[in-house]
Each structure stands twice: as structure tokens, then as C-alpha cells.
Amino acid sequence: MYSFMTIIVIIVVGITAGISYLIADYFFKMKEHELADKGHEMAETIEYFIRIDDRDTLYKYVVAVDRLVGARIWLFDENYGLMATSYENSSRKSSSSDGSLSYFFDENSTMTNLESEGMALLNKDVKHGKISDKIRLILKDIYSGKSVKSQIFHPYYKEQVILVGVPYVDPITKGRGALLMTEPLSGFDKFLRNVYIYTVILGLVALVFSLFIVKKFSKTIVKPLLTMKESATAMAAGDYSMRVEVKGEDEVAELGNALNSLGSDLNAYVSKMERTEKMRRDFVANVSHELRTPVTIIRGYNEAIYDGTVTDTEIVQRYRRLINEETIRLEKMVRGLLDVSRLQASEEIPHKNMEELPLAIVMRNVAEKLMIKSAEKHVEFSVDADENIKILGDGDQMVQLILILSDNALKYSPENSIIFLSAKKLEDGSVLLCVRDQGPGIPEEDIPFIWERFYKVDKSHCRNVPGTGLGLAIAKEIIRMHGAQAEVKSGCGEGAAFEIKFPKDKVV
Fold first, then answer.
1. Model confidence at 186, in pLDDT bands (50, 70, 90)?
2. Residue 420 — φ and ψ, nearest 5°?
């Protein structure tokens, strides 16, 4: 009996220690790898900002990436000097707590913030404080061209952090700089504590149960426990598909169900984390690419004018026109990003803040706004809506929504075609708003993704259509804030119809 109990204790302890160590090691390595990937992605963009000597935008970019990925960023030059950091003093945190990209594009956010009292103290501590020796040892390896992954105690977080450092090359001085990224382990430590507690509770249940029936049912108990151990070891190694076969309704069966539930929860957690990380990584890459393109064009044409490569007055005028167009496009992109971030941070509009909106009038106003643009393409707007149909909503946002959908339809409409704007009341009391064009349509495989930021249908028939790729992302958030639902009906060569259904509680 006692030998069997010893085996049970060893198994329970082994499960606890194995899950604790292997899961911790697995997630630590995965997090280090993810931060390293982010660091290498950032290095190219940082080199670009240094090349164009735009330190203000560099600082804003570093802060924006911090907000997006949740890791503090430290940027050093080749002389161990702190060039930029995402560290924020208390005043900045209180004014930018929404975690949006508005901080990135804040005109008042410049490198002069580095001269604030808090940043000055931070720079002093880095160079002369308690962390000086540790940081210098890490930076020494990075400056030699190595990528560094480590876990250290951070004096500002007052806890262990994952630290990843990658080198970059200063395109001006050709010297090597260093990028440090740190992420606290507090959230994961809490998760691990829950795993420890959960495992211990399960172990105690198994021990108590075995005390009563160890003599008669030792074989019946040992076999499922061994299976559970194998399942726990598999989960700790990253395989969450293995499940324990559960028989009966006793305590051992409960333990098996609990372990199966833990495996399912871990699998869901990892999948969610991978999806979130992919979204963050894709978004950072898209923002960097979309901003880099117009800036590169502007710089190229400006340099041609500045250094005298182009002297012909007509060509110079054309270059200036192109610079102005790219500047306007960049401004629209920034404004769109700010709108998306602001709307995403907003909840559904409460009824008390809504106003009665006659859809027919709003749709005609939008058609009038686009009259000149539609006349250039010989496209007509047809408005069909009952004058008595009214919904509750935000007037400015509703105009913006219909304008986005109508302008999008106009971009893809061929000459001498018609864009149909309609609104009708359904039998269930809801209202259906529809914007339909006679354009080339949207391929079925692209429809689920058209609401995403920067997503453009890359087909031959619409390759040259202008736009920032943010309009439908803004429209999606406006629809959400009004408690409505959107459906897109289309196909190649069939035109596209955007249907927005407002629930009956939003209908007057």
C-alpha cells in the first residue's frame, strides 16, 4: 500500500513539475522567438527613418509598435547612447491610455519628449545606474552582430522580463546600433500559478481518492493515472490533442475530465495567442509598408528637384504635382488609421446619444456630394427610399458610412452605369440599407477579407483603383457601433451589393 502511495505521490509531483517546467520553457522560448522576429522586422524600418533623418517619426514609430505588441523598446546608437525608447512618463500614459495608434500620429509627440524629466532619469540610469553593467554586457554582444535572448530582472517593472536584442546598421555612419525589446512575465506568471494550483488540486483529489480504495482497486487506479501522466507530458511538450479515456463518474473520472478540459483550454489559449500575434505582426508590417511607399516616392522626386537632376520647368512642375498627390494620399492614410483606432476603442452608441435620421435625405445628400465625381465617369446615382423611414444613430457617422460605400461603388463602376441606393422596411420591423453597383464584382474568396485594414482585391480588373484600403474597415466599425449587420452579395462580373440591416430597436 505504502509503495503504491509513494508511486502516486511521485506521479502527482512529476505531473506538476513537468507541466510547470515544460510549459514555462515552451512559452518562454516561443515568446523569445516572437520578439526576435518583431525586432528583425523593425530593424529595416528603423534604418529607413535614420536614413531620411526623421527622428521624430522614428520615436513615434517605436512608441506605436510598443502599443501594438505590448513590449517596451529601447533603441541605442553605436556609442551606447539611448536614441529612442517607448518608455512613457505618467502624464503621457494618462493621456494615451486607449492603446490606439493616435499616439503614433500625435503632432505633439516628438523626440523632444526624450528631454522630459522622466526620460532624462531613465537615460541616466541606463548609462550610470544599477542596470548599466548588465545592459552594457548585452549591448556588447549585439554590437558584435549577435542576436541576444535573455531573462533579467527589470528595475522599472520590479519583476522578471524577457529581453531580446537585435542589431541594426546605421545607414549614415555604417556603425552598428542595438534594438532591445522587453516584455514582463507578470501575465504569464499568473497563468502558470493557475496551472500550478489546478494541477495540485487535481493531485490532491487523486491522493484522497486513492487512500480509500488503494487495496481493492490499485490496478484500476494506476492505469488511468499513468495515462493522465502521458497526456500531461504530451501537453507540456506542446501536444494538446491527446485525451484521457474516461469511464464512470468517480473522482478519477473527474480528474480525467479536468485534465481533458485543461488540454482543451491550453489548445484554445495557444491558438488564440497565435492568431493575435499574426494579426499584430501583419498590421505592423502593413503600416510600415503603406507609410514607406509614399514617403519613398516623395523623397525621390524631391531629391531630383533639389539636387538639380531635373531642370526642365514642365518636368519640375509635374514632379511637384506628384509630390503633392502622395502627400495628400499619406494624409488620407493617417486620417483613416486614426478613424479606425478611434472607432475600435468606442462602444456601441447608447440610445440617449442617438438622433432620428431620415435615410432618404441622408442618401440624397451623399449622392449630391459625389455628383461632380460621378459626372466625370458618366455614372448616375439612383435613390429609392421611403421618406418615412427613420433610424436612430449618429448623423455624421451615418453620412460617413453611406459615403464610404457609395464612393467605393463609384470607384469600381464602369462608364454609363448606375449606382443604386435604396432603403426599405422589412416585415420584422428592421430596415435594410443597400448600395449596389454594376461593376466587375468581388470574387467570392475575397469577400470575407474586404473589411480588413489595407486589404485590396488584387485582380486585373481593379488593380489600378485608388484608395488607402481603410474605407471599409471604418465602415465596419460604424456598422458595429450602430448595432447593425452587414452582408455582401457579389461575384465576378455581377456587380456588388452592400446590405446593412438595422435592427427594429434602431428604427423609429
1. low
2. -100, 120
For residues 472 and 251, give the distance between their C-alpha atoms in angstroms, rounded to a whole number.
53
Rounded to whole angstroms, how far apart are CA atoms 259 and 242? 10
Cβ-Cβ contacts under 8 Å for 476 (sequence gap 6 or more): 451, 486
Q: How far apart are CA 20 and CA 193, in angstroms?
A: 9
Domains of the chain: 2-18+189-267 (no CATH), 31-184 (3.30.450.20), 274-344 (1.10.287.130), 351-506 (3.30.565.10)
Task: Give me the sign of the Cα torsion angle 147, 151, 156, 157.
Answer: positive
Estimate to the nearest angstrom the gap between the alpha carbon of 327 and the chain centroid.
Answer: 26
pLDDT at residue 460, rounded to an integer: 43
**Residue-wise DSSP of 184-219:** E-HHHHHHHHHHHHHHHHHHHHHHHHHHHHHHHHHH
Torsion of CA 40, 42, 43, 45, to 10 degrees: 140
DSSP state of 113: G
Whole-number Å distance between alpha carbons of 46 and 15: 45
Q: What is the DSSP letter of 349?
A: P
- Please give the Cα distance from 504 to 1 (Å, whole number): 69
| Type of residue at 179 | L
Q: What is the mean pLDDT of residues 224-253?
A: 72
Q: Phi first, then psi: what are they for 500, rounded to 5°?
A: -115, 120
- Separation of alpha carbons 359 and 343, rounded Å: 22
DSSP 507: B
**Distance between CA atoms of 298 and 54, rounded to whole angstroms?**
14
* Cell numbers linked to 43: 530593424
Largest CA distance in the chain: 101
Cell of 347: 462602444
Check the CA dihedral 362-368-369-375 and report its sign.
positive
Distance, in Å, from the CA atom of 75 to the CA atom of 181, rounded to the nearest integer, reads: 9
Number of H helices, E strands in the chain: 12, 12
Q: Is the pTM of this model over 0.85?
A: no
User: Phi and psi dihedrals of 401, rounded to 5?
Assistant: -60, -50
**3-state secondary structure (DSSP) of residue 160:** strand
Residue 432 banded pLDDT, cuts 50, 70, 90: very high
